[in-house]
Amino acid sequence: MTIIAGIFYNLYGDLMKYITYEEIRNAPVNKEIWACAYDEDNNYDYSHLRQEPVKGMIVYNSGENKVRLYSDKIFMKIGKSGKLVKSSSVRLFSREYADTYEECVEVYNDTIDKRIELLKEYIEKSENDKIK
To answer: For residue 56, how many C-alpha atoms fall within 13 Å in the half-sphere facing its CB?
Structure first.
């Protein structure tokens, strides 16, 4: 795998995953892509933002795709009819992306694993706070 301008390329030069700001900003427009999100909030007992991999498209927020989001590019889910679902629109940077479902599952699971590691650190710090 090679990194050019912050974007992952596989051995064949095909784009694979779009995780960092720069990668997402340069993700392909008007091409089917997979998106996911996972973000916890410690004030709640449930996942604050949980979007398992879903197929959609990054489009410009203009013309027939115009929605009330202050973002020049947005992500729209592809519905069962094969058309973009306008009501599913989200800001471009609220998701991470991959070219295939399998790659998107990796991105999603990696995000959860990072969260688990962070929680383990919190537990370890709390254990150290105990009076011995």
So the answer is: 26
